């Protein structure tokens, strides 16, 4: 038979969520008791993530053997909590919603639950029951919150909270709810697999592991992208002059690549041009390893396909190094490092050519591993380029 939970079992971390009705799930509970908290920063981080000590202590907990009268008090406390949840829920009808009424019901539930821990003093006043409150029940609230709740429960006139703001009433009611549920959970004779404390610890373990895995995945993707951006180096076309074979009305026929865009393409050729092209002058012969062509984003991307990339060291002496025949949003072809001054992208049919941006790179040399990289191997085929996927993060570099 499975063992129920230990008196020293630390409750779990988490804030008390606002209940949504009588059947609302109990809130997550506080971090472990002071005696169970790991001391070193690494141990505390590991416990926060894995919840190993909390689960071990929770699974070893044995609730007190309750007499029939004590069990009746615990059941009455749970009933009061259900009614209080209905009064505190924002989904309740306005005539039933009352944070102060919920606080009063939670207070009675706390009194009933704490009195069930001591069969010798079942009729002890609430103040005495709070003084004897077990440590694992107190740990459901941080010490300042527990002290503030104790003052509200026994240190002030009963109607004092009713005169305060609605925010204060909700805050005190939620504190009382957490303490009431903590005391009732400690009395529950449930096996470890179904006890609320164990279930909350397991939910925290897997949700935090999922969060950690997501952060690691983001870090890996970010590191890979940073490495690829480093390998690409600066954009050789930035600020360089360009010209086009023709221009559509309202668009310039020449300019520089750093011209601010106003929500449209960088250029637009005439639609009657048989083989429209866009050409960048790098200013001097420069080693070039790849380009990135960003198609017009608002419409008409099909006009840019098929498209070829051509390089030339001198005006007019162009050699094709890459081509694409399908519609694309971003095209990133890499080819063998070639010295060129002029970089041209050209449509191979009559169309309107309009692109948002064209970038030019020279790959930085990677540390040698004794074999050529993928881009270098692809470049050995004359006239071919490595047509990398649109997402730069998937490009395999040497």
Count of extended strands: 8
* Alpha-beta classification: alpha+beta
- Terminal CA distance: 60 Å
Percent in helix: 25-40%
The H/E string reads: HHHHHHHHHEEEEEEEHE
Beta percentage is 15-25%
Overall outline: elongated
Helical segment count: 10
Described by strand count, sense and barrel closure, the largest sheet is: 8 strands, antiparallel
> Which radius of gyration do the C-alpha atoms yield?
35 Å
Mean of residue pLDDT values = 79
Q: Uncertain runs with pLDDT below 50, 5 residues or more?
A: 1-36, 366-398
Protein described:
- With 398 residues, the protein is an alpha+beta fold.
- The protein is 36% helix and 17% strand.
- The chain is built from 10 helices and 8 strands.
- Strands 1, 2, 3, 4, 5, 6, 7 and 8 form an 8-stranded antiparallel β-sheet that branches.
- A hairpin with a 6-residue loop joins strand 4 (307-312) and strand 5.
- Helix 2 (52-59) runs antiparallel to helix 9 and helix 4 packs parallel to helix 8 (166-187).
- The longest helix is centred in the middle third of the chain and has 37 residues, at 196-232.
- It is elongated, with a radius of gyration of 35 Å.
- The two termini are 60 Å apart.
- Residues 1-36 and 366-398 have low confidence and may be disordered.
How would you briefly describe this protein structure?
This protein has 398 residues and is α+β, with helices and mostly antiparallel strands. Helices cover 36% and strands 17% of the residues.
């Amino acid at each position: 038979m499975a063992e129920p939970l230990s008196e020293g079992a630390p409750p779990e971390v988490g804030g008390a969520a606002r209940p949504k009705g009588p059947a609302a799930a109990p809130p997550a509970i506080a971090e472990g008791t002071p005696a169970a908290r790991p001391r070193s920063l690494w141990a505390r981080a590991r416990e926060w993530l894995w919840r190993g000590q909390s689960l071990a202590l929770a699974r070893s907990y044995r609730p007190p053997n309750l007499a029939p009268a004590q069990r009746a008090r615990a059941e009455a406390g749970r009933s009061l909590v259900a009614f209080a949840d209905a009064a505190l829920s924002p989904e309740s009808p306005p005539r039933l919603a009352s944070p102060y009424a919920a606080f009063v019901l939670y207070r009675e539930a706390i009194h009933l639950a704490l009195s069930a821990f001591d069969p010798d003093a079942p009729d002890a006043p609430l103040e005495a029951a709070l003084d004897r409150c077990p440590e694992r029940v107190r740990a459901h609230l941080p010490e300042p919150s527990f002290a503030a709740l104790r003052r509200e429960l026994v240190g002030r006139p009963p109607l004092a909270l009713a005169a305060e703001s609605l925010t204060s009433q909700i805050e005190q009611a939620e504190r009382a709810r957490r303490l009431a549920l903590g005391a009732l959970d400690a009395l529950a004779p449930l096996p470890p697999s179904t006890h609320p404390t164990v279930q909350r610890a397991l939910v925290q373990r897997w949700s935090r592991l999922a969060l950690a895995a997501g952060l690691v995945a983001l870090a890996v993707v970010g590191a890979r992208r940073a490495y690829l951006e480093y390998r690409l180096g600066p954009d050789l076309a930035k600020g360089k002059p360009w010209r086009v074979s023709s221009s559509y009305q309202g668009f310039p026929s020449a300019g520089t690549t750093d011209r601010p865009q106003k929500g449209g393409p960088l250029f637009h050729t005439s639609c009657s041009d048989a083989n429209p092209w866009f050409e960048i002058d790098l200013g001097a012969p420069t080693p070039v390893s790849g380009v990135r062509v960003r198609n017009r984003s608002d419409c008409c991307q099909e006009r840019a396909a098929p498209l070829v990339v051509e390089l030339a060291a001198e005006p007019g002496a162009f050699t094709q190094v890459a081509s694409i025949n399908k519609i694309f949003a971003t095209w990133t072809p890499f080819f063998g490092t070639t010295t060129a001054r002029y970089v041209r992208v050209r449509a191979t049919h009559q169309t309107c050519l309009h692109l948002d941006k064209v970038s030019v790179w020279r790959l930085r040399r990677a540390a040698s591993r004794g074999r050529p990289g993928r881009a270098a191997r692809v470049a050995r085929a004359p006239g071919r380029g490595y047509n990398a996927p649109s997402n730069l993060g998937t490009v395999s570099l040497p």
